[in-house]
Fold this protein.
Amino acid sequence: MNAIFDFLTFSLLAWALALTALRLILGPSLPDRAVALDLLGTVVLAFIAANSLQSGETLLLDVLLVSAIILFLGTIALAHYLERIR
């Protein structure tokens, strides 16, 4: 049962990653691409979290926390930049 759950989790995350990358490439405007880039980072963080839960490695949770903070600050900086160029 656990292997099925892991397969389903990573499969859904892979689909989310692929669809988000497609939106990043095809996004019609810069704000659409910015949101897709933020979502791409979030999906990568979800991959790290799922891998940490699967392997039981608690060090990955520290990496996840620092990465989430950096992703959040990058999103705020990008939103500020997009606001200034409009």
Observations:
- The mean pLDDT is 93.
- Residues 2-85 form a domain with the Helix Hairpins fold (CATH 1.10.287).
- The chain has one domain: 2-85.
